[in-house]
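I hope you will forgive my troubling you with a question about protein structure. The matter concerns a single protein, recorded as an amino acid sequence and a row of backbone structure tokens. Please examine both parts with care and let me know of anything in them that strikes you as inconsistent. Thank you for your consideration; the sequence and its tokens are set out here:
***
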Amino acid sequence: MSVLSAIAVVSLLVWVWLLLGQGLFWRTDQRLPPHPEPQEWPDAVVVVPARDEAGVLPASLPSLLAQEYPGRASIVLVDDGSTDGTGALALALAEKHGGLPLRVLRPGEPEPGWTGKLWALRHGIAQARSADADPEYLLLTDADIAHAPDSLRTLVAAARANRLDLVSQMARLRIAGFWERLVVPAFVWFFCQLYPFRWVNRPAARTAAAAGGCVLLSTAAVDRAGLPDAVRGAVIDDVSLARAVKRSGGRIWLGLAGGVISVRPYPRLADLWRMVARSAYAQLRYSPLLLAGTVPGLLLVYAVPSVALAAGIVGGDPLAAAAGGAAKAIMIVTYLPMLRYYRCSPLLALALPPTALLYLGMTVDSAVQHYRGRGAAWKGRVYARPGTAPDGG
């Protein structure tokens, strides 16, 4: 057996394990569980952290104002140090569209040890739970997320019917230009690979995750897990929040969304690069050892099958060609459901290896920026190390 054949066989074994042993991560059938409506609807408050979001609010906030919720509900938008008139625009949109009552908060700059979004959520949750309105549920949603009119209703019904403390839906990200079609489905597919939804949704499993764009959270779980203070410095705040809820005995659920849509455009590769690189090294827990293992690991999984198939055919190595071809076939088959979910051409599955190499470059760049002191930069704030104070506006 040649060296190339041996490496190709290892790659194939990894793909067989991913296909069968990683929680069927490639399936896209994890949708909201059955949710008969409650006889009495609990109070709910929508909390929206927003920093310089005037460009997307006209496409997202009206969908929240128009929520068809049978119980008492309201919206708290936290203007997190915006310089583009985000807060004033939110009030103007509320006056124009009507619907759910809206309050706008401006809490000021984060205290040391807090990331900006969690600082905003801290104040938004406190306002939501004020003496005049202590709701049973909080919907934490980003300013770039548009919701179907029944979104809050179905989330609360699913949480009540299934006794869930946290219900999160992965928003359908925008797909328009070439780079979005190439990168976005792979981004969600990689997330599902890291956090298989079936494992997340199993109470006995340790795996925990959420999608920060849409998280319905019970206030009982907030108190039990000490949120958001318990995760105040987290860069990947949604996963950290879900872990805190699950560790404290709460039941969580994560799935793909139908009526929850991101309206933020990522027209250029540079835009997508920044989105991924901002937290990629944090995903590796800022560990040089994990990074050193990730680079050859991604090459083994995503580059070797194509190389082994081509080199095996050209060089007359049938075992390398067969193993590489089988691994590549599994790769394509597991990616097709996500492409179907995003209504993309199945031919894009052939581009998964170079797309994975793009993600490898983003991850390495994330580590480089971390060691240069730029860390998780977002809208003027920089988190150079876990738990450090932000630098900049």
Summary: The chain is about 50% helix and 10% strand. The chain has two domains: 3-24+273-374, 44-271.
